[in-house]
């Protein structure tokens, strides 16, 4: 069952993708890692040297490439802000899962992390970013899961959505 995981920074996409990959015996593609590989740069370097616009172009091309293979795609939180990437996710045949949590717990997980350029902004600005994305996450997703229930229950909710 090929899937795409979307959601804000700190929502647990990478952790859930890894657990799903193990359960389903599927490969997991981390788009942030693919971007590092493609560009030869870290994410903070890309933002510093090429801006967010440059980063979104890398993100779009690794998303396109990832969709060529089966498996689970774990995306970066801002992928839905770039129209071409958003259209791919909205129109894909894969199951699209939106991992969500209360903003406070997301923020707690990301605020001290210097590998995320957009999370180093003041809290109110990060909240504005979250609020501005939520509609797109919801519009693109087949299922929304609140990760407050923990990793195991999140994985179960994705694998048995009607339970
Ligand atoms: C971003 C989220 C990050 C990474 C980049 C931009 C965003 O991925 O792609 O720092 O715009 O929300 P995670 O969601 O895995 O932190």
Q: CATH first level: which class?
A: Alpha Beta
- What's the rounded overall pLDDT mean? 96
| Poorly predicted parts | none
Rg estimate, integer Å: 15 Å
Instruction: Let me know the number of strands.
Output: 5
Within the largest sheet, what's the order of strands? 2-3-1-4-5
Instruction: Write out the distinct hetero groups bound to the structure.
Output: shikimate-3-phosphate
- Oligomer description: single chain
Q: How far apart, in Å, are the first and last alpha carbons?
A: 18 Å
* Annotation field: number of helices: 7
CATH architecture title: 3-Layer(aba) Sandwich
- SS-based class: alpha/beta
GO biological process, one term: aromatic amino acid family biosynthetic process
Keywords: Amino-acid biosynthesis, Aromatic amino acid biosynthesis, ATP-binding, Cytoplasm, Kinase, Magnesium, Metal-binding, Nucleotide-binding, Transferase
InterPro entries: P-loop_NTPase, Shikimate/glucono_kinase, Shikimate_kinase/TSH1, Shikimate_kinase_CS
Cofactor: Mg(2+)
């Amino acid at each position: 069952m090929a899937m795409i995981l979307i959601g804000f920074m700190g929502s647990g996409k990478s952790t859930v993708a890894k657990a799903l990959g193990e359960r389903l015996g599927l490969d997991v593609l981390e788009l942030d890692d693919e971007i590092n590989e493609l560009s030869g740069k870290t994410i903070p370097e890309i933002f510093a040297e090429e801006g967010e616009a440059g980063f979104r172009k890398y993100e779009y091309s690794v998303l396109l490439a990832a969709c060529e293979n089966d498996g689970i795609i774990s995306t970066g939180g801002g992928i839905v802000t770039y129209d071409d990437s958003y259209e791919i996710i909205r129109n894909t045949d894969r199951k699209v899962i939106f991992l969500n949590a209360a903003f406070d717990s997301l923020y707690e997980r990301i605020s001290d992390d210097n590998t995320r350029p957009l999370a180093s902004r003041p809290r109110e600005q990060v909240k504005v970013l979250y609020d501005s994305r939520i509609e797109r996450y919801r519009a693109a997703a087949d299922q929304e899961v609140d990760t407050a229930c923990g990793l195991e229950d999140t994985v179960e909710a994705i694998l048995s959505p009607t339970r």
